[in-house]
Amino acid sequence: MFGKLLKYEFKSTSKWYLLITLIALGLSVITGVIGGSATNGFVNMETNSMQMITGTLGILIFGGVIGLYLSNYYIIIRRFYSNLYGREGYLTWTLPASPHAIILSKFVGALVASLYCLFLLFLSGFITIIVMGAVIGQDLSPVFSIISEAFSHSIAYWMIIWWIFTTASGILLFYVSIALGQLFQNRRGFKAILFGFLLCLVLSIIGTAVNPFKDSYAVVYALVYGNIDEFGVNFIPGLIYEVIKIVSMYFTIHYISKYKLNLQ
Length: 264
Prior knowledge:
Blueprint: H1 2-41, H2 47-85, H3 89-93, H4 99-136, H5 141-150, H6 154-181, H7 188-207, H8 216-224, H9 235-259
C-alpha cells in the first residue's frame, strides 16, 4: 500500500512541480541573457546603469531561489495538512493502510521533491552560465571544471549528506508542528505555527553545539591549508543529532495520528 500511496503523491504534485520547473528554467535563461548583455556593455556603461543591472540580476537570482523553496514547502505543508488533518483526513484515514504507510508516503514524497528542487537549482545555474557564455561569445566551460574539482573532495559529499538529513528533519518539523496543533479544538493553525517556532528555536539552540560549521576558524584553516577533506568528520556529531530529531519527530507524529487524531 505504501507504494500506491507514494505513486499517488507524485502524481498529485507533478503538475505543480512541472510549473515550478518551467518558471525556474525560464528565469535562468532570462538571467543569463541579462547577465551576458550587461557583461558586453560594462565598459561603456554608466555607474547608475551598472548598479541597476547588477541589482536586477541579484533580485532575479535571490528571488528565484527563495521562490523555489517557498513554493516547495508550501506544497509540502498544504498537502500534509489537508490530506491528514483537513477535510480529506476522513478519507485518508479510512484507507486500508497503516499510519506508518500514510505518514511515510507523505514524508518520502516531500523529501524527493526537495531533492528535486536542489537539482533544479543547480540545473538553472548551469543554464544561466551556458546562456551567458553564448551571449558574450566566450567559452565558460572552465566554470564547470571548477565545479567538478569541488566534487573531487569528500567534503562535497559530506555536505550533500548533511543537506539531505537537515532537509528531512526540517520537513518533519513542519509535520510535527501541524500534528501538535491539531490536538487543540480552536485556532489550530496559529498553535501549529507557535509550536513550529518554539521547536525551531529550541532545536536550533541545541544544534549549535554539534553544528559542523560552529568553529569558523577551523573551517577557514581547513580551506587555507588544504585539509578540507579531514574536516568531514566534524559532520558526524551533527548527523547523529539529526537522526535523533528525525526519529523522535516521526514517532511523535505517528503517535498523535494513531491515538490522538482529532478531525473537525
